[in-house]
Amino acid sequence: LYAKKNVAYVAIFLNQGRDAGASRAHAHMQIMTLPVLPPTIEKESKAVQKAMRTSGGCPMCQIIEQEMKGSRKFLETEAFFSFAPQASSHPFEFWVFPKAHQISFLKASQREIMDLARVLELSFTALAKVVGDLQFNAIIHTSPEKRTSRQIHWHIEVYPRLGGFDGFERGTGIYVNTVAPEDAVKALRDVATKILKG
């Protein structure tokens, strides 16, 4: 898709459940090409580039290192680490990152893809057991192939859909999360640990 003319970004996402925008009942992901970088990726890449110029290192690698020791840690495998972000906008939100600094989902090895599949299967199973009706959006944030100046540490952001946003969120862009990320990820982690123990 990146080889095609006028493709600046390839968006990959999963909508699970009607409230999350799913158009089909069966599980599926979607891929869309865009002629411009999405504002979210543009903003994220600018912040990453600024931090790298200032500190000399990837800010997401630094966050992963901090979160590995913290109370928002969810799952860790050989290649991946997941956690609830400190300023989660959604209850039970979590992010999944490759532990090694990687800029493109497209460059993940077969072994890494298999590891990621295990992480996502366990994460979504735990999420379903904790929240019940499983509705969420999962979005892959990856560097665009054509804009090397807009590189980021690729990752997946998962947003459970447990209720709509009201006028405050829509009008201000400030989100009210009624579940502390530490409490949410502890519930998910406890369930995931029980699943792993069988």
Written account of the structure:
With 198 residues, this protein is α+β, with helices and mostly antiparallel strands. Helices cover 36% and strands 19% of the residues. It contains five helices and seven strands, in the order ββααβββαββαα. It has a seven-stranded antiparallel beta sheet with strand order 2-1-6-7-5-4-3. α3 crosses α5 (181-197). The longest helix is centred in the middle third of the chain and has 22 residues, at 110-131. It is globular, with a radius of gyration of 17 Å. The N and C termini lie far apart (41 Å). The mean pLDDT is 90.
Instruction: Describe the strand arrangement of the main beta sheet, using strand numbers.
Output: 2-1-6-7-5-4-3
Poorly predicted runs are none
Report Rg.
Answer: 17 Å
Report the β-strand fraction as a percent range: 15-25%
- The level of helicity is 25-40%
What's the number of extended β-strand segments? 7
- H/E topology pattern: EEHHEEEHEEHH
Structure class = alpha+beta
